[in-house]
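Appendix B. Chain record.
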Amino acid sequence: MIIKGLFSLIIALLNIVFGWVSLPAMPEAVDTAFQTLLSYIEAGIGFVWLIVPREMVLVVVPVILVLSNFDKLYSVVMWVLRKIPFLGIE
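Structure tokens predicted for this chain:
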């Protein structure tokens, strides 16, 4: 609930800052290439789900991402904790 509120606040701030910017539409060739790329990715994911159960993929992939980036995640958490003065973390 708190995370959802923070994301809503961030989106509202981004809309305030960048709301006045109107970007042109993407060219047709770029849009077609992007849609083709997405269809290839969807086909690849479908192939993976034939071999490995979908539920397992949805659990294992985030775990692998967290474990592979643990050092960066640890650095960010410790940086935030050091910014709180009454905790006394050095």
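Further analysis of this model is presented in Appendix C.
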